[in-house]
Structure formats: C-alpha cells, structure tokens
Amino acid sequence: MQDKKDKSKAALLKEKLFMNRKNGCRKVSADDVKKADEFCEEYKNFLNQAKIEREAVIYALEAAKIAGFTEYDHNMTYKPGDKVYVNNRGKAIMLAVIGKNGTHNGVRLGIAHIDSPRLDLKPNPLYESNDLALFKTHYYGGIKKYQWPTVPLALHGVIVMKYGTVLTVDIGEDENDPCFCVTDLLPHLAVDQMSQVMTKAFNGEHLNVLVGSRPFNEDEESESVKLNILNILFEKYGISEEDFLSADLHMVPASKARDLGFDRSMIAAYGHDDKVCAYPALMAAIDTELPDSTVITVLTDREEIGSDGNTGMKSTFLIDFISDLAEADGEKARHVMAKSTCLSADVNAAFDPTYASAFEANNSSFINNGAVITKYTGSGGKYSTSDASAEYMAKIRKILDDKGVLWQTGELGKVDGGGGGTIAKFVANLNADVVDLGVPVLSMHAPMEVVSKIDVYMTYRALYEFYMA
Ligand code: MN
Ligand code: MN
Hints:
Strand content: 15-25%
Mean pLDDT: 96
Low-confidence stretches: none
Largest sheet: 9 strands, mixed
CATH topology of the largest domain: Aminopeptidase
Structural class: alpha/beta
Bound molecules: manganese (II) ion
Number of helices: 12
C-alpha cells in the first residue's frame, strides 16, 4: 500500500474527483458478502416455489401473515406500525406498513413484478398431429423464441370449473414428475432453417409443446393419442377438453435455481426478472417497523406484457388503496400522490463481455457492483419512459450513500440499440417521484437468467433504507 504522502498530485486529485469504479466486491465487507450469501439461500427457495405470479402471491401472503400482516379492511382504522395486505385476485399483492405520519407527507412505494416471460397455453391448446399430442401456446412477454425448444418445461397454473372449483396445476418440477418440451429440428435437416433470420426461423406457431405419444387403446379411432391425454387428465383432475377454456396455464422451465460459478457468487435460474426484486421488496416490507411515512410494497402482475389488465400497474388498484388510506387520514389521494416517492424495483441488463458491442460501458450496470439505478428506460430518444428528476436522484443517492448501500447506475444498452420499459412511467403518471432500482441480470428473459448474490442483497438493503428513511 502506498502512503498518502507518496501519491502523486494527479492520483490524489483523481481520488477526489473521479467516481470510484472499483469492482464492487472490493467495496463491500466480508460480512456483507456473507450476509448476501445467506440472504440468497431463501431467495432460491422463493424462485423454486414462485415460478408464476399466483405462486408468488401465495408465498408472499404466507410470509406476510407470519410477520403480522392482516387483510386490509377499509372500514377499520389503523394506527402507526400496523401492517396490512391487499390481495388482488391472487395475482398481485400490496403490503402496507402504516407510518407515524400516515399518508400526510406522501407514501413510500416499492413496486416489483412477479410475472416472467413464458409460454401460455392457448384457450384451446390440445391437438394431435401425426400420432403425437401437443399443446398450442401463445408466448407471454418478450422472448427470443429459439431459446425455448429442447428445454424441459413444467406446467403451472389453474383450471377453474364452471361452478367455481379451482384446480391447481403444478406438473414437472418434481424429478419424479414427467416434463414437457418444445422440439427443434435436427442440424442434419436444418439447412433451410439455419439460413433464415432468427425471427423467421422460430416463430410463435413453432412453440408447440409435446405432451404425449401413446394411443388410448387398440381401437382404430382417430385422435386416440389426444384421447389418451384427455383421459389421463380426466382421471387426475376430472376435467374435459372444454375446461381448458377457463384456465390460466403456463409452461415454464422446469429447472431449479442453482449457484453459479466455482466461487458460487451468482445464481442461475428462471424468472429472476423480476422475482429478484420482488423477493428483496417483500423482505424489506416484512422488516419495516414503524416508518415515518406509510410504506406500500406492491408485487404486481402483467409487467412483461405492458402492465395492462386489472392486476397490472395500469389498473387503479394501487391508487384506489392509497385513496382509502388517504381518506382515513383526512387527506385527498391527489395531495398524497404529489408528495409520494417510489422505487420501481426492476432489473436492468448487466454488461456482458461476450456481447460488449450492445452496451456503452460508461453507462452500463455490472455484475457485483450493487443495486442498479436506472434514471430512465424507454427507447429512441427517451420515448416511453419517465426520467427521474435530478432532485429525486439526489435524494436517493443520499439515502443509499448514508447507509452504505452498494449501488451503481446503468442505462439499458446503447442509444438506439433497442430498449424497454418498466412500471416506473405508470407511477410517474400518478404524479409521484419514481426511479428504477434493481438487480443487473445476464441473459435477461432467457429460460435461465444470471444474477449476483451481492446485487440481490444490496437491492434488499436499498429498498429497506428507502422505506425507513
Ligand atoms: Mn422486469
Ligand atoms: Mn422483463
């Protein structure tokens, strides 16, 4: 180590004026690394148990109840420190901790999404073709379609019978379960396929899932492979083909979350986007005790397809809840919103050295450099995004720096390289201050995504310190 007096004038001035861009691992204590590793053990369980939004709500609800959250009732009055939840149709959930000042100074919002890209079954999915039984799917969210064939898939979701009975489906996760898959063409016969552009080589109607191959019996009936599958489903669930019409069924990768790397510094899993922010947000909500302003954590649905629908952030469910809380305090929701602040907890793309040309390194987020703050997302000249104000950025910087949270900033790739969005703009449209904060992800939206354990833990810390600030 050099002594301070031995450093050159330039080195000292650099220290004072340049941003510290050391590898994040060198900036955090051994204790923080240990805490990050411990924090991520249960995160991996969450990933395995919560592959779809409904399962994430079940997990969150159970954890919240244990932590003392009770179902919100707008006819009740609540006092500072009380913890309540609102379950929106089993697909989105809000957790609130009532603050000392209630809603008078605005509320603190932390919002993450619990839906992830996948293959949804079409309403009429089952068909037989050349003695194979298959499911037609309609992909959900932004996927590179070529990544989904030849990956073991599991079926998750619900079938609701005409008279309301809900059948929960979860097949393919247990190693004794069967799994399913989309097939691909062998390289020997793929001369034509391989010469096509990717968007043509794999299109949405190629994403058919193989689900069976044996006929019902020796009868010479047509479609007897399909009949055999329906008979198995009838025996297991008591359903017939028509019942697919009232179902939410999703094919997701059947893999479990695993440590990645010789050093176990990362996690490989399906669905990090955005469970990797939803889990830290849930833990921050649970750990929040008696905040100054009421803290509301939202785990929302539908983000991957634009936040439309009654369980997505374009719905009024959040503002309606805030209105109820405001009225109880003798406030108007619009006055509360104008003073409210939000962390939109969502992922950003981590710099990938293999695809370096897609990134601008000075403004990219990196694995292990902590929670990434994304001032704006969007595309093509800052279209379709809220852009956090300098004033709000300053506030968040101060909170994170004061509490020693490791964080970085990042844009989503190069200017005009593509783009994307989060729920931030919908919250901004409600007249609150909002910025994106979350975890940098490698291979985002692939059947297996990669994150760093330190970044997951720092996202939890960022949300907690924001809630308690
Ligand atoms: Mn996301
Ligand atoms: Mn996404």
